[in-house]
Amino acid sequence: MFEAKDKAAILVEALPYIQEFYGKTIVIKYGGNAMVNDELKEKVMQDVALMKYVGIRPVIVHGGGPEITEFLQKVGKESSFVAGLRVTDAETVEIAEMVLDGKVNSEIVTLLNRRGVHAVGLSGKDAGLIEAQKKLATVYEGEAEKKVDIGYVGSVAKINTSLIEDLLDQDYVPVIAPIGVGRDGESYNINADYVAAEIAGALQAEKLLLLTDIEGIYKDFEDKSSFLSTLHLPEARAYIRDGIIKGGMIPKVEACLTALEKGAGKTHIIDGRLDHSIILEIFTSKGIGTQVVR
Known about the structure:
Elements: H1 4-21, E1 25-30, H2 33-36, H3 38-53, E2 57-62, H4 65-74, E3 81-82, E4 85-86, H5 90-113, E5 119-123, E6 130-141, E7 144-159, H6 162-169, E8 173-177, E9 179-181, E10 187-190, H7 192-202, E11 207-212, E12 217-218, E13 227-228, E14 230-232, H8 233-241, H9 249-261, E15 266-271, H10 277-283, E16 290-293
Parallel strand pairs: 1-2, 1-11, 2-8, 5-8, 7-10, 11-15, 14-16
Antiparallel strand pairs: 3-4, 6-7, 9-10, 12-13, 15-16
Helix pairs in contact: 4-5, 7-9, 8-9
């Protein structure tokens, strides 16, 4: 049980970080187990509320892959993937948009509003916030590289930040679904890590936080002593090239690199399964995850 002096010491430790980040924009990519576990969900919303009340300007970008898969199953539609990307025909992108905008986004906004935080839900289609282009999957047949059209899966062509900045200036928390709009008005489902990275870069955010289901980055995942608390941009590129960073961690690290290259200050990969992981990373000297920096 914490005594009063212990609680005071925690607050004092947080003070310089509160001062440093006051008025700064921090982008949070919200996903993984923290998004589907009700207890963790509450902790994340408390963290965002605390950030807001100490003067930080949070922006949330959320995923929703498991929810999309679940809804597709309900309507009898099987999910198929190519190179880790969901094959997305016209019906599937319509369902994805409905789930991301209508269910997931709305729930996050409601949870924040209940804590006195004025949150506003956005799709990337709102005011042309996320301009998208078709993304082709890369597959290999022997040593030959082949590009495959998998439908309405997109990449970010441009982020139009004026709407986000207006909301932040008016004291709102933008909550953004990763649906982009194509040149002819068509919808594209985009990987939320990459959307968060592009938004963090476009806003010149102080930080990008990626909530994941692992502790951070290891040089050797089987060797827990090889944990990397800090990884520099050139090293990160080399680790991807050499296969040290692999699998599902690649898009996370690539998102960090994109954010840094486009103007974000620092990026962090943190374990969203831990209670109050956001606060632990931002407001303590040790932190809990891996920071990827220039």
